[in-house]
Design brief:
With 284 residues, this protein is α/β, with parallel strands linked by helices. It has 3 domains: 116 residues, 3-Layer(aba) Sandwich (D-Maltodextrin-Binding Protein, domain 2), CATH 3.40.190.10; 88 residues, D-Maltodextrin-Binding Protein, domain 2, CATH 3.40.190.10; 67 residues, Alpha-Beta Plaits, CATH 3.30.70. The chain is built from 8 helices and 15 strands. The strands form 3 sheets. It has a 6-stranded mixed β-sheet. A 5-stranded mixed β-sheet has the order 8-7-9-6-10. Strands 13-14-12-15 form a 4-stranded antiparallel β-sheet. The radius of gyration is 24 Å and the shape is flat. It binds phosphoribosyl ATP and zinc ion (ZN).
Length: 284
């Protein structure tokens, strides 16, 4: 019995998807331009597909699970369940208008033409705001639509914002925040679910590790108490005596978002020789 996973064949999610599987200890047999491969050391078959097709394949159980942007899953409106947010492929689906426009709220869109590759999500957004507008579905290069007179506004994915900027547009509303998600078929068999649980256990350990750093530092013993107070612990930090009398080595784990803040405080509390080390897996 194997768990079949669908991932993007090429594009923005491909590398991170493959890396996630690798970090989970799942080796893929190499093969360029393959539709399908399998793992030597985990009961998994990997299908490489266009991202737009992944929700359908998972709904139809051609694949048991898949990795896809939440934006694509919601646009396609397929029966597949989100099991885990994966923390990469982050972007937002936004409304943008010409930089020179006087934008004064979503009412601006009333009666306007909107170009997008996400007609379903845009229609839902307009309905929620009780706005009538004309949606022009186009398949790519949405950002050039206002410049060539095809539309008054666009709804497109944005990450850095540079594409909008280069096309003389400004971002005015967020329709949706998105990232890559792991999805599963709604009626997964018990054997597949068991493999998925194993995979999820590993994915969560990898995600935790990515969000945390291992920190080692030297502290004068008379400052130890204060330094330990600054360290949020999973449990309390490890404290070991140094060869030099009056000093200790302190080991702890810090999460990415509080990291710099705490490091500064540790320094001013007298910590020295601070080492920060990536964590490979973290199981609590
Ligand atoms: O061939 P296939 O159909 O599989 O791929 P695709 O071309 O449809 O998708 P791809 O590879 O471009 O994107 C796959 C997924 O990556 C998307 O569905 C999103 O979930 C996610 N993602 C994250 C993005 C972006 N960031 C992103 N910035 N997808 C697209 N963009 C595009 C956007 O459309 C715009 O053209 O990048 C441009 C804007 O980027 P910035 O940085 O200039 O703002
Ligand atoms: Zn696509």
């Amino acid at each position: 019995m194997k768990l079949k996973i669908a991932i993007q064949k090429s594009g923005r999610l491909y590398e991170d998807s493959v890396k996630l599987l690798k970090d989970c200890g799942i080796d893929l047999k190499n093969g360029v331009n393959k539709l399908k491969t399998e793992s030597d050391n985990f009961p998994m078959e990997i299908y490489f597909l266009r991202d737009d097709d992944i929700p359908q394949y998972v709904e139809d159980a051609v694949a048991d699970i898949g990795i896809v942007g939440e934006n694509v899953l919601l646009e396609k409106n397929k029966k597949a369940e989100i099991v885990e947010q994966l923390g990469f492929g982050k972007c937002r689906l936004s409304v943008a208008v010409g930089r020179g426009e006087k934008y004064d709220g979503v009412q601006f869109l009333e009666g306007k033409k909107i170009a997008t590759t996400y007609p379903v999500l845009v229609q839902r957004y307009l309905d929620t705001h009780k706005i009538n507008a004309e949606i022009h579905e186009i398949s790519g290069s949405v950002e050039i639509a206002p410049g060539i007179g095809l539309a008054d506004a666009i709804v497109d994915l944005v990450s850095s914002g540079s594409t909008l900027f280069m096309n003389g547009l400004k971002e005015v509303e967020t329709v949706l925040k998105s990232q890559a998600v792991l999805i599963r078929n709604a009626q997964l068999g018990a054997a597949q679910q068991e493999i998925l649980d194993k995979l999820l256990f590993r994915i969560r350990a990898v995600k935790k590790a990515r969000n945390n750093k291992y920190v080692l530092l030297n502290a004068p013993n008379d400052q130890l108490e204060e330094i330990i107070r600054l360290l949020p612990g999973m449990k309390s930090p490890t404290v070991l005596p140094l060869a030099e009398p009056g000093w200790s080595s302190v080991h702890s784990v810090l999460s990415e978002n509080e990291f710099w803040d705490i490091i500064e405080k540790l320094k001013s509390a007298g910590a020295q020789g601070i080492l920060v080390v990536p964590i490979e897996k973290m199981i609590i």
